[in-house]
Design goal:
Layout lengths: L7 E12 L1 E4 L2 E3 L1 E10 L12 E8 L4 E7 L6 E7 L1
Antiparallel strand pairs: 1-2, 1-7, 2-3, 4-5, 5-6, 6-7
């Protein structure tokens, strides 16, 4: 998974609800598979501050692929950050 990135990034990332699938923009979507996590941290050598994020790729039942993350310090909140090919 590492190195695989979406073609379109959402700015800002949009909140989603995870459970028996995914709820995005009020629509329930079925997930066929997920892979991850890939942990992305701020650059330590640049003294950047920011959250550490765990990213996952998910494929929906209709074939769309999403790039999702949750912050490492708040495992309850999920966000959609990008759309893959």
């Amino acid at each position: 998974m590492e190195g695989t990135r979406p073609l379109l990034l959402l700015h800002p990332p949009e909140p989603v609800q995870m459970g028996q699938g995914l709820v995005w923009r009020g629509r329930h979507l079925s997930i066929d598979w997920m892979e991850g996590p890939e942990r992305i941290r701020p650059d330590w050598w640049r003294a950047r501050t920011g959250p550490t994020r765990d990213y996952y790729r998910a494929q929906l039942s209709d074939g769309r692929r999403f790039w999702l993350f949750r912050t490492a310090d708040d495992r309850g909140a999920w966000y959609l950050h990008g759309l893959c090919a």
